[in-house]
Amino acid sequence: MTALALPMLDADAPRTDEEARARLEHIADLSAEVRELARQRDAVILAHHYQVPDVQDVADYVGDSLGLARRAATTEASVIAFCGVHFMAETASILNPERTVLLPDLEAGCSLADSITGEQLRRWKSEHPGAIVVSYVNTTAEVKAESDYCCTSGNARSVIEAIPEDRQILFLPDMFLGLWLERVTGRRLTIWSGECHVHAGIRPDDIDRWTAEDAGADLLVHPECGCASQAMAFANERTHILSTEGMLAHARQAPGGRFLVATETGVLHGLRKAAPTSTFEALREDAVCRYMKMITLEKLRDSLRDLRYEVRVPAELAARARLPIERMVAIG
Ligand code: 13P
Ligand code: SF4
Fold first, then answer.
1. Of residues 50, 248, 220, the one with CA closest to residue 138
2. How far apart are CA 9 and CA 288, in angstroms?
């Protein structure tokens, strides 16, 4: 199934067999160096599903935001080398302040986390006294510190359902996830109008192309997508709105299937490993998070070698942000 794929040019792609072989050798050498440095540093390498394949393959654990937070909370390694984005490393540091948390590139941010500041949240709360604040984990430590609960796509529904029905809920920052939550829980939420530029770019038009050109494949849609509500409107046995980890679990249960995947394309690597007899294609090949892709094997090697760049949340802020994160880790 390639009809829907939007062409992408990879400037770094090897052009000859010899170049491809040299590249594989380089990756193998670097991976061995990374593993040896991790051993010397007593480091655990945690990687998000959106990381480049080489980084996923060298990690001790690959997971979604919830799985990574849970791993970070319980690891006994001295160092956590976090291959993800800044808010994830902050979360790891808040949950496990005795460990050294490293982020190989401090520029690895998140457009969704940037869509609300602590000051904006304080103002929003003052307009809705008594409301419960539920923040998606894609937020800064300062925003988490102003929240009652955090959640991820993996447990957002359970978190909303754990809150008494008579309480107003301020949900932030992702509006598409918020709208999806309203539909699946039947609750009215007051929703911040933030979005992830990658998922918001997967639009209802893309679903239309799927129905017109390749309705034979099953569609896996992350609820952060700009098309999530439209996908729900189709709600048939071939359309599945799933968190990242939910997509992997679904793929494992349906070997030999054909899937179109509406989320960041890094997840295709894990899906293909989890279900090698199935085929997976991106609904949009340009759904690539430039922040996630900033982490490379070279930067991970340098990070472990030089113990850089440490992410540590100031103790007072961490103390306030810990409770909503611990609630998230415990629910769902
Ligand atoms: P999950 O890992 O919770 O699926 O979140 C997706 C995402 O956009 C992470 O930045
Ligand atoms: Fe943030 Fe979106 Fe990138 Fe996830 S994919 S890190 S939400 S910008």
1. 50
2. 13
Q: ∠ CA 90-95-99 to the nearest 5 degrees? A: 80
Give the chain's length. 332
Place 332 in a pLDDT band, splitting at 50, 70 and 90.
confident
Tell me the CA–centroid distance for residue 198 and ligand 2, in Å.
7
Best mutation site among 49, 85, 116, 295 for ligand 2 pocket (most ligand atoms within 8 Å of CB): 85
CATH number of 199-282: 3.40.50.10800
What pLDDT digit, counting tens, does each position of 123-137 carry? Answer: 999 999 999 999 999
Domain ranges, ordered by start, for the chain = 10-110+291-306, 113-195, 199-282
CA of 330 to the centre of ligand 1 (A): 18
CA of 246 to the centre of ligand 2 (A): 17
On whether the CB atoms of residues 189 and 169 are closer than 8 A, the answer is yes
Helices (H), the chain: 17-41, 53-58, 65-74, 86-95, 118-127, 141-145, 156-161, 175-185, 197-200, 204-213, 228-234, 244-253, 267-274, 297-306, 315-330
CATH T-level assignment (fold) for domain 113-195: Rossmann fold (3.40.50)
128, 168 Cβ separation under 8 angstroms: yes
Residue 204, pLDDT above cutoff 90: no
Among candidates 141, 102, 136, 142, which has minimal Cα distance to 119? 142
Which one is predicted more confidently, 216 or 226? 226
Q: What predicted TM-score, i.e. pTM, was given to this entire model?
A: 0.93
* CB-count exposure of residue 124 (10 Å: 0-12, 13-18, 19+): middle
The CATH code of the domain at 10-110+291-306 is 3.40.50.10800
Does 199-282 match 113-195 at the fold level?
yes
